[in-house]
Please model this.
Amino acid sequence: MADEIPILDLAPLLEGRPGALDALGAQLRRAFTEVGFYFVRNTGVPEPLVEAAFAAAARFHAQPLEAKLALPFNEHNQGYLPFRGNTTRMNAVEGVKKPNANEAVFFKRELPPDHPDVLAGRRFRGVNRWPAALPGFREVALDYAAAMEGLGRRLVPIYAAALGLPPDWFDDKFREPMFTLRMTHYSQQEPTAAADEWGLAPHADTSFMTILAQNRVPGLSLRLPDGRWIDAPAPEGAFLVNGGMMLRRWTNHVFLATPHRVTNRSGQERYAIPFFMDCDYDAVMAPIPTCVTPDNPPRYPPFTYPQFMTEYSGANYDQRGASAAGVALQGA
Model:
């Protein structure tokens, strides 16, 4: 079992070196069959943009509570979720009873009010609402989301290579990927806080791909398939990437969705800007052909993004989700 998180270097791929895609695919396959996380560096994402996004998150959460509550979290999973505003139930990996000790604001792809999906009321295709008193915030958030989407698109062919598929196999499923930018504030937790009080409780993500900019304030840890929890390192200039339950389901359990958690006992305020990227809204995800064998027959019927996310959001962001089932610990 790997004891460290693999690091993928995109430079050879971006430079067009022969064999780069296959080499990265082999590294990614190892990452998702042994660890569930990997770092990626030489991404082409400007560091000043990352710093600006962290600063924007801090600016947003420094506002008075009334200003944040003016953008309430809605059925599209957009808007502001107050401190201790949700409890991790779906995809939880331990007996979680307490609400998460964080506050967060969520944005999706920018859609105009007259977009057909908005007019039709399609869930998760709503209009972003922006803070009125923060000049430039919207522009930074959208620029960062665009950079993360671009990085995600560059990574998708590596997933195809890792799964023994043609490089363009996912292209028609990621023409306009769904995504969510979450800007989270973890306040300082007292060193004497209860052991079951989490900034973000142990859980597996839902996404196909989560891209996380490195945080100078520690707090993130992940659970390896052998049951050990390790603190995530933070190599400078790299992004941490993991897969969620969507990737695990789509790959018929060939790839991991590794549990992780956040506890902020650093003595500092902590901010995080995870970017969750998924396939197109209407793309049908059936078990990937190379992940189906006589020993591993299809585990799930085909599904779509709204079907999958409705199940998840109903559990974690709705009071009626108290009885939702968690996810089994992998490898334990």
In short: Residues 318-332 have pLDDT under 50 and may be disordered.
